[in-house]
Amino acid sequence: GIQVEQSPPDLILQEGANSTLRCNFSDSVNNLQWFHQNPWGQLINLFYIPSGTKQNGRLSATTVATERYSLLYISSSQTTDSGVYFCAVERGGADGLTFGKGTHLIIQP
Amino acid sequence: NAGVTQTPKFQVLKTGQSMTLQCAQDMNHEYMSWYRQDPGMGLRLIHYSVGAGITDQGEVPNGYNVSRSTTEDFPLRLLSAAPSQTSVYFCASSWREGTDTQYFGPGTRLTVL
């Protein structure tokens, strides 16, 4: 099956810092999503981004489908950004999303 | 819209007991799926459905059954719970499979003793 690798696995930053999270995948995909899992366990959709660039406030994402990677940018981090960020991909059909193991982000005040 | 809802939020079972995790969505989505999340890992697909009356297996289907009698509901049944099924279970839905944003429910935390 398709492989999804996320880096770094852990990241500790001070409030106000910027960060870049990376997602590499091993095959072409029709769906790529970024999620934030908050400390209460809720999975929150951040972006649906199989290709191109999107921005939503302090967050933005870029997927370069031809090179099989996606980047999530977080600017001016806040403590509420803490949690685990997952990248998930889908090749098509009904196989469901394949998740990476996530990046655990801690924002310290 | 309530989105994707799951009940219960927490459940403790003894080995060998059976139970049903409920999932419902009010977005008229055709595609629904169940995932489990184990510590330190991403989510893995258990079963999915592309529409009422149609279900299929995902990556880790053993020990679980599903049915889809309506578009809105997609229950997950544990036939004889085992400690290896201790996990957090998420239900998801989308308009169609493969190329659409998937929306996740709040999860059910299950412990099997």
Give the tags.
heterodimer, A: 109 residues, mainly beta, five-stranded antiparallel sheet, 57% strand, B: 113 residues, four-stranded antiparallel sheet, 11 strands
In DSSP terms (H or I, runs of 4 or more residues), the helix count of chain A works out at 0
Inertia-based shape of chain A: globular
Portion of residues within helices of chain A: under 10%
Alpha plus pi helix count of chain B: 0
The count of strands of chain B amounts to 11
Outline of chain B: globular
What's the overall average pLDDT of chain A, rounded? 94
How would you sum up this structure in a few lines?
The complex is a heterodimer of chains A (109) and B (113). Chain A contains no helices and 11 strands.
Can you put this structure into words, describing what you see?
The complex is a heterodimer of chains A (109) and B (113). By secondary structure, chain A is mainly β. Helix content of chain A is 0%, strand content 57%. Chain A contains no helices and 11 strands. Chain A has strands at 4-7, 10-14, 19-25, 31-37, 43-48, 52-56, 59-64, 69-74, 83-90, 98-99, 103-108. In chain A, strands 2, 4, 5, 9, 10 and 11 form a 6-stranded mixed β-sheet that branches. In chain A, strands 1-3-8-7-6 form a 5-stranded antiparallel β-sheet, with no helix packed on it. In chain A, a hairpin with a 2-residue loop joins β6 (52-56) and β7 (59-64). The radius of gyration of chain A is 13 Å and the shape is globular. The mean pLDDT of chain A is 94. With 113 residues, chain B is mainly beta. In chain B, the strands form 2 sheets. In chain B, strands 2, 4, 5, 6, 9, 10 and 11 form a 7-stranded mixed β-sheet that branches. Chain B has a 4-stranded antiparallel β-sheet with strand order 1-3-8-7, with no helix packed on it. In chain B, a hairpin with a 2-residue loop joins β5 (43-51) and β6. The chains are: A mainly beta (109), B mainly beta (113). Chains A and B meet through β4, β5, β9 and β10 of A and β4, β5, β9 and β10 of B.
